[in-house]
Give the backbone structure.
Amino acid sequence: QRLRAAVHYTAGCLCQDVAEDKGVQFSKQTIAAISEITFRQCENFARDLEMFARHAKRSTVTSEDVKLLARRSNSLLKYITQKSEELTSSNMEQKEKKEKKKKKSSVAKGRRTSEEQEAPVTESEDSNMA
């Protein structure tokens, strides 16, 4: 119910923006119809995505499922593909950064360990000298 209300509110805001830009008016019934159609279409999309994943024997919806859903709209498919590639390259960059940090921290830990091992030896040498 809250999700349906959120869709209705967003549809109303978008209609208001279009009304200001184009100089037209939207009746409350029109906004309600647009929000209802939008909500039903989102439900259909969710069911389709679930079925695509299930058909591929997965429990998780992937970007490939979303691309399959958008296959009939060339502009939407192009946009989704572009965003998917951007996310993939961004994720790769983040993974590389994490790997570099892990390497640096493991090298630093290795240094600390060797320093810690050297310190007791130095102390025991000092105590032997006394």
User: Anything to note?
Assistant: Residues 122-130 have pLDDT under 50 and may be disordered. The chain has two domains: 1-58, 62-94. The CA atoms of residues 31 and 54 lie 35 Å apart.
